[in-house]
Amino acid sequence: MSTFDTGMTVLRSASERMSAANRVMGRRFNELMPKGLYARALLIMIVPMVILQSVIAFVFMERHWNTVTRRLSAVVVQDIAALIDVYKTYPQDKDRTQIKAIAQQRLGLVVDFLPLGDMPPPGPKPFFSLLDQTLSVQIGRQIPRPFWIDTVGRSNLVEIRIQLDDTVMRVFAQRSAAYASNSEIFLFWMVGTSSILLIVAILFLRNQIRPILKLADAAESFGKGREVPNFRPRGAREVRRAANSFIEMKARIERAMEQRTAMLAGVSHDLRTILTRFKLELALLEDGPEVEGMRKDIDEMQAMLEAYLAFARGDSGEPAQPTDMSSALEELRSDAERHGHKATVTFHGLPIVTVKPAAFKRCLANLVSNAARHGNDIAITGHRDHRYLTVTVDDDGPGIPMAMREEVFKPFLRLDDARNQDEGGTGLGLAIARDIARSHGGDITLADSPMGGLRAVVRVPV
Ligand SMILES: Nc1ncnc2c1ncn2[C@@H]1O[C@H](COP(=O)(O)OP(=O)(O)OP(=O)(O)O)[C@@H](O)[C@H]1O
Ligand SMILES: [Mg+2]
After folding, report:
1. How far apart are CA 69 and CA 64, in angstroms?
2. Is 382 helix (H, G, I), strand (E, B) or coil?
3. 380, 408, 413, 419: which to mutate for ligand 1, most atoms within 8 A of CB?
4. Looking at the CA of 427, which ligand is closest?
5. How far apart are CA 423 and CA 417, in angstroms?
6. Whose CA is closest to 301, among 274, 280, 262?
7. Which residue owns the Cα nearest ligand 1 atom 3?
């Protein structure tokens, strides 16, 4: 392998690793991001605002506030240093009345002289106090003597004590003389205005997002086969467009379904008429084995016709309404027992579920009739939680091999042909059942039952 090839391989594997890392990071980021549109939109507004304000606050504090405070403190410390010089140079001022007066009148400082040893131990430094820091630095720089300061004790005064050779000089300075104090106001304004902005944004956003949620709700209930009461397009132009398209789509689908139903009604009527005529003609013929056979064929044909029509008709038209699932399952059980099978029913959760009652019952009845046809014992279990209604039908029959579990949902497909030819159905039961489950926004799956046969699971959203 040439050096070039090796290099390319290394590069390729490195880039693969990079993109894998990228993917992982992207997934993490997606997991961390809030899922709702509302929260996301708010984040999109808040994050830049917080970043902008932090940068502004940082620069302002760093540059402006620090500098101004440093200069003001330096001036106060200079004044104190000058006073100390005066004190040392003119010792004849015995009561120090002069120096006190000058300090008070000219510099705005209240000066006292305390006995030596009146230096408290250094107190805890207030965390985050800019004034304390800058004053300490300035005193250390300009007056090389032991000192003690208290910037927090009194609200608008700063106390400074400096140890001289024969006394301790105590100075009270105005806090405002040493400190650029309006920065808090600046911060207050910043936080205040951004809170107002945020509240306005939240109110506006909520109004913008509500139509989207309404549209999502409408589409969802249409998907579950429920009515969408008084849904109207609202909100921004794009949302209205989506809502209008949804309404048109819904109307188109409903129209198509209506046409299908009308056509089926026509077909079934025509065919039934002919079948009835057949029957009448047969009744007029003399009895015999051929006539008996034909009569049976016609009965079978009629049953098949009914089944096809039921399948093709689907569950169109029936409105969804709150239904007591627990008693519906109970009816299925008593039906099965009437036909000589052992059946049990259990139900967990709130029994009132919104479904199309007749259609949903037909769906379950198809599953139970399958179980009854292939097994002896039947177990029906209902479970309802905050999202789904799950109904499980178990039997102890032969079951369906794994490979055929999707196949059997196809219309007209029957596995019974080889098993027992006489009492086969039309092969539509599972297809109809799945159709109904899907029209409720759910589905049917097949699995192995703990009872040894087939387990059919219907799951629809509530
Ligand atoms: N519980 C079951 N155990 C074993 N096989 C089953 C079971 N349920 C269905 N099957 C198989 O799946 C095939 C399709 O079932 P489906 O209900 O669609 O039609 P069908 O029962 O034959 O006719 P129909 O339900 O229209 O009277 C059946 O022919 C049967 O072989
Ligand atoms: Mg069946």
Report:
1. 8
2. strand
3. 408
4. 1
5. 9
6. 274
7. 399
Which residue, among 154, 74, 165, has the nearest Cα to 110 in the 3D structure? 154
The best mutation among 341, 414, 457 to test binding of ligand 1, ranked by most ligand atoms within 8 Å of the C-beta, falls on 414
Asked if residue 332 lies in contact with residue 356, where contact means CB atoms within 8 angstroms, the answer is no
CB 57 within 8 Å of CB 194: no
Residues within 5 A (CB) of ion ligand 2: 370, 425, 429
Kindly give the distance from the C-alpha atom of residue 378 to the centroid of ligand 1, in angstroms, as a whole number. 15
Pocket-forming residues, ligand 1, beta carbon under 6 Å: 307, 366, 370-371, 374, 395, 397-400, 408, 413-416, 424-431, 453-454
Q: Which ligand is nearest to the CA of 410?
A: 1
Closest ligand 1 atom to residue 456 Cα is: 1
DSSP-assigned states of every residue in 335-362:
HHHHTT-EEEEEEES--EEEE-HHHHHH
Spell out the residues 6+ positions from residue 458 whose beta carbon is closer than 8 angstroms to its own.
Answer: 363, 364, 367, 390, 391, 392, 393, 433, 437, 442, 443, 444
Residue 151, classed as helix, strand or coil, is coil
> Whose alpha carbon is nearest atom 28 of ligand 1?
414
- State the distance from the centre of ligand 2 to the C-alpha of 374, rounded, in angstroms: 10
Using a 10 angstrom Cβ sphere, with 0-12 exposed, 13-18 middle and 19 or more buried, the burial of residue 89 is exposed
Q: Can you give the pLDDT of all 462 residues of the chain as single tens digits? A: 567 888 888 888 888 888 888 888 888 888 888 888 888 888 888 899 889 888 888 887 778 778 888 898 899 999 999 999 988 888 777 778 888 888 899 888 999 888 887 788 777 666 667 788 888 888 889 988 888 888 877 678 888 999 988 889 999 998 888 777 666 777 788 889 889 988 998 898 888 899 999 999 999 888 888 888 888 999 899 999 999 999 999 999 989 988 988 888 888 888 889 989 988 998 888 888 888 888 888 888 888 888 777 777 666 678 889 999 999 999 999 999 998 899 999 999 999 999 999 889 989 999 999 999 999 999 999 999 999 999 999 999 999 999 999 999 998 888 865 455 455 677 888 998 998 999 899 999 999 999 999 999 999 998
